[in-house]
Amino acid sequence: MLGKLVKYDIRSTWRDFAAVYISILLGVLILPPVFNHFDNEIVNGIAGFLGVGIAISTIIVMVITLFKIFNTNVFSKEGYLTMTLPATSTQLVVSKLLISSMWIVLTGIVSAIGICIFAVNLNAVPFAEISDGFRKFLSMIDSNGFLAMFMLAAAMILSAVKEIAKLFLACSIAHLKQLNRFRVPVGILSYFVFSWIETLIVQAFALLFSLFPFTEEFIRQLKLIDDMSSIHQHLGFFNGMVVVGILYSMVVISAYALGTIWILNHKLDLD
Question: Which of 55, 119, 246, 263 has its CA 20 to 30 A from that of 41?
């Protein structure tokens, strides 16, 4: 049943994301030639500001769309149909998180491609320079380096999924029957409370870590990572930090998902 839920979520969301991706690609193809007709600092500043705005807008649209996936499919009138499916709350939540992960990855890829196209078309960075820089970068990275890059990408994706899982739980809390009159403020407050708790947890772990005798040496080693040539000597430290971040994100995602599942099983209140 999980596979069917994933297929359904893809069919219900691909049009929204396709429209976003097409808009990004059209923007980075059409706008640079227009700006190239005007060669002054003000126009260049506007172009840079516009590029940043496109990236921020993409993130905002992605978050809103992913939130709509969960809120509409579970807590609106559509939720009555969703809850009649032969699927558990766990499968529903896992499906939404899997789809969120997929769209986060694709949005990141499309955004990176869009930024490169925008920079090249704007003549800000020659394509040959980008190509040469990329080849030099690859030549400096060995198998351990590629593993570190993969782990770092996984950590960044899981960190983004963690925020989506937090958003799902805040949305579920906002739909508790007892809080029916204050859904919006309660949902927003819940999200920020969870973020505050996360900050306290991270600070507590940092304080605990500082008490170990090897902490001073660890920090000294980190300060030595100031360029690509020295990174190879300290990949162990770097990978260890990334693994800790991955495990932390997985634990927090699981906690948020379990909280959402519990509310769906025991406190669900559909409109």
Answer: 55
- How far is C-alpha 93 from the geometric centre of its chain's CA atoms? 17
Q: Locate tokens 């260890």: which residue?
A: 240
Domain ranges of the chain: 1-140, 142-271
Kindly report the backbone phi and psi dihedral angles of residue 270, in degrees, each rounded to the nearest multiple of 5, phi listed first.
-80, 150
79, two tokens: 């939720």
Average pLDDT of the chain?
A: 76
Backbone angles phi, psi at 130, to 5 degrees: -65, -45
pLDDT-derived band at 257, boundaries 50, 70, 90: very high
Q: Over the stretch 85-95, which tens digit does the pLDDT of each residue have?
A: 677 888 888 88
